[in-house]
């Protein structure tokens, strides 16, 4: 509920005031595809009825899956009912188009990739959040690019006061949810290596800003990191407070990460004026290319480790301030 209220307040800043919420029943993730298909058809049909009632010209799905996408596209093609245009925001689910095991015909038939390829027409559009994502999708599925719209990740930047003196205690923070796919293993290993590094001259700590997945319970490297939390969700205020403690925001994702969807957490770091330490991939390359020196764009895990050791050897406050200035210019 708090999240929905925050969304409503954010939209009001753009003069979108006639906003209402309608609760719906969502099928369980572990449900069989046939069960989800029926339930998602009911959801899509309900969306259609509401769009007809409101005489809506655009219907936007901010989250989707294979059965929702397929049933919504079927309904969108129902002649006189299909006056509205349908838009589907492509986020993390898009990554599944390369995970398909082609030896299983049924899984291939009901996959998200298959749902993307079918029933496209001029009233169906896919929203891609970044030019690098468009390029990656073009390489993988060139046939649907004509149905795509591309713009940068929407983010509402806020003003903040930075009172932290980074020279007193360096904080290397993992931004966002702690997950293997987001490089948490690398982050934990970096914390361990920093602990074993004896040349550092500064106080420092490694921290997590969000919850960790349950698979990390009992991980022997957790002892090198602070603010370990296995809650299902962290209140936004607590998450923001934790992010504000950071000196540097770490994104040790693999080179193949974020080919098909953007990182919202990196904009949290930019919003708070935190220089970034990350491993090169297409998405981060594009951000650094357009924004300039806002941190350290590293080739691999070893390069990230070397950067951290250099910082621990002697923190360059002037260079850090320059990186922060570049980030603030980006926000403007």
Summary, kept brief:
By secondary structure, the protein is of the alpha/beta class.
For the termini, the CA-CA separation is: 31 Å
Total number of helices: 12
Percent of residues in β-strands: 5-15%
Shape: elongated
Mean pLDDT equals: 82
- The quaternary organization reads as single chain
Strand order of the largest sheet: 6-5-7-8-9
Determine the fraction of residues in helical runs and give it as a percent range: 25-40%
Tell how many strands the DSSP assignment holds. Answer: 9
- Give the helix/strand class: alpha/beta
Would you list the SSEs in sequence order as H and E? Answer: HHEHEHHEHEEHEHEHEHEHH
In this structure, how is the largest beta sheet organized?
A: 5 strands, parallel
Descriptive account of the structure:
The chain is α/β, with parallel strands linked by helices. 39% of the residues lie in helices and 12% in strands. The protein is built from twelve helices and nine strands. The strands form two sheets. The chain has a five-stranded parallel β-sheet, with helices on both faces. α2 packs across α3 and α7 runs parallel beside α11. It is elongated and about 70 Å long. The two termini are 31 Å apart.
């Amino acid at each position: 509920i708090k999240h929905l209220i925050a969304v409503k307040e954010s939209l009001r800043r753009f003069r979108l005031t006639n906003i209402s919420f309608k609760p719906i029943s969502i099928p369980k993730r572990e449900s069989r595809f046939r069960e989800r298909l029926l339930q998602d058809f009911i959801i899509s049909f309900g969306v259609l009825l509401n769009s007809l009632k409101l005489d809506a010209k655009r219907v936007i799905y901010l989250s989707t899956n294979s059965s929702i996408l397929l049933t919504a596209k079927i309904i969108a093609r129902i002649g006189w009912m299909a006056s509205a245009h349908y838009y589907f925001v492509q986020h993390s689910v898009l990554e599944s188009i390369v995970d398909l095991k082609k030896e299983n015909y049924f899984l291939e038939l009901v996959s998200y990739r298959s749902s993307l390829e079918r029933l496209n027409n001029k009233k169906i559009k896919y929203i891609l959040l970044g030019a690098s994502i468009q390029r990656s999708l073009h390489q993988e599925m060139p046939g649907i690019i004509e149905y795509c719209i591309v713009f940068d990740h929407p983010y509402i930047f806020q003003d903040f006061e930075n009172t932290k003196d980074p020279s007193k205690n360096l904080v290397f923070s993992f931004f966002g949810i702690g997950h293997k796919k987001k490089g948490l293993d690398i982050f934990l290993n970096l914390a361990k290596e920093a602990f074993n590094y004896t040349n550092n001259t500064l106080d420092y700590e490694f921290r997590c800003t969000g919850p960790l997945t349950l698979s990390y319970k009992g991980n022997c490297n957790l002892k090198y990191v602070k603010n370990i939390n296995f809650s299902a969700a962290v209140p936004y205020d607590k998450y923001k407070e934790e992010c504000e403690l950071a000196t540097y925001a770490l994104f040790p994702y693999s080179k193949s990460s974020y080919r098909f969807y953007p990182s919202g957490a990196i904009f949290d770091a930019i919003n708070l004026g935190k220089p970034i330490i990350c491993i090169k991939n297409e998405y981060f390359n594009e951000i650094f290319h357009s924004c300039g020196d806002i941190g350290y764009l590293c080739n691999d895990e070893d390069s990230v480790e070397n950067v951290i050791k250099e910082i621990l050897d002697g923190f360059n406050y002037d260079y850090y301030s320059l990186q922060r200035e570049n980030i603030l210019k980006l926000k403007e």
